[in-house]
Here is the input.
Amino acid sequence: MGNCFSDVEGGKQAVGGTQQRPNSIAATNNNNGGHNDAVEFFFRSRGIQPLFTQIELSLSASNLLDRDITSKSDPMAVVYAKKRDGKLEELGRTEVVLNSLNPAWIEKVTVAFQFEIVQPLVFHVYDVDSKYHNVLVKTLKLNDQEFLGEATCVLSEIVAKQTRSLTLNLNNKNGHTILRNLGALTIHAEETVSSRSCVEMVVHCSHLDNKDLFSKSDPFLRISRIVESGGPVPICKTEVVKDNLNPIWKPLCLSMQQFGSKDNPLIIECFDFNSSGNHVLIGKLQKSVADLKKLHIERSGANLTLPSPHHGHEKVLKGQLFVDQFCEKQQYSFLDYISSGFELNFMVAVDFTASNGNPRNPDSLHYIDPSGQLNSYQRAIMEVGEVIQFYDSNRRFPAWGFGGRTIDGTTSHCFNLNGSTGAFEVEGVEGIMAAYARALHNVALAGPTLFGPVINTAAQIASQSISYNSSKYFVLLIITDGVITDLQETKDALVKASDLPLSILIVGVGGADFREMEVLDADNGRRLESSTGRVATRDIVQFVPMRDVHSGQISVVQALLEELPGQFLTYMRSRDIKPSPLHAASTSA
Here is the structure.
């Protein structure tokens, strides 16, 4: 049993059972190609109807090559769609399983199944180097990892199987076989369930058997669902509780997509964690969600069992599982909120610091070309604006500049882009473009680059809205060349703003070093911390380098909306703000 289902903290974190997994976007942490309500809604509005069925792929492997010297491989799987031109488009990644040659990954990969076309899929399995175990999987550079094998198939091959499962032999890249057995990959497909139902539980165990010699066991739970073919598919695991035979785990939140139905049997296994990956089974039991609810109501425990050496019998253990809290909830999607009248209000801030270069020089990021060719900022405003104005009902944008010397000779880190001393809103994307062009004639580039004042101004607007309208959510778009000088002050402003209905999109233009921007985008799993030690309540920043968009690596729509629905839902759910029931019901229909 070498299954450790996490890529951080040495495999001790929970996977797949946290409330932060929004049901509107698939595998939020790592799937670039998964379903996203915001993206789908955008395309639907333009008459592009997606004729597809959402399919979730569960992956497991057996007999992988062992590339590590002192331990076993730490495998991760990556799923690609093979395009007509032969190029691979990444759909998603699993988590890293530590020290295992037979991993069963928990993170699913979502793919849109289109009946009428052939959809080739390519699966790559990598051994992730131990120095990357504290890095979020979506940021891993695959060239730095050791390749373990490749498998290919057509999506319809999996879907057409009676068991919805397909096992493929792993080969070298490009299908070349070698004398050595590289192992096998099994893919299981299930149609996603469009249900908002979920169950939140707090569970604990008592009197667990001790599996360690010099200390107490370090227990964690793994929960698997039994599928129609009769095999188990892992859906989540808890965090590890160190040195404790009576562990209480953090709340688990399971969606109906994960557990199937209330009567579907679940296998709950309790393991003693070992860093070698050889986790020791303490005990297990089989219960449905309905059974777990009954345990909670009756305030009774269920005994764990262990397979007995005598065939067909199980040893009943003293250790028991208890359900301390059980709550059935509705988890609404991003689209439920938007369709019921919730609004995204966008605000824009443009960088006027000297690092952009003299606007009169053709190599400046602010150079206005007489031929009409757009500069980097204009392109960003136009391309980003097409997306963001779609979600803003009145299309009136507060627009500011920062880091420029205004007409009165003072350097301002938050001035109205339209030059007005009072009104700061402009009409639509055209209004932003016009105000930007005028500002270049009236504002001298200066510095330094301070994000703090603009973020605080946006936060003040968001804060004022809470008292009179809970259906507004604000998004500040900062367009910058990436050289920031008030990093700690910006962190302080972001931590303070993380309690507000506000997200911040930072769009980087030009070829600068954007590493500091990536620090603000807490994609490494670590939330920002202020100078006083306060930790952000949630991640509210997303960074998008426009050079990646222009190189064709990502679409501007996907790039901008990748994290926004999740940030929006995290805020609404944490405040228990629900969409209008009438509109939510019609959305489902």
Remarks:
- Confidence is low (pLDDT under 50) at residues 1-8, 20-34, 582-589.
- The two ends are 44 Å apart (CA to CA).
- The CA atoms of residues 65 and 539 lie 37 Å apart.
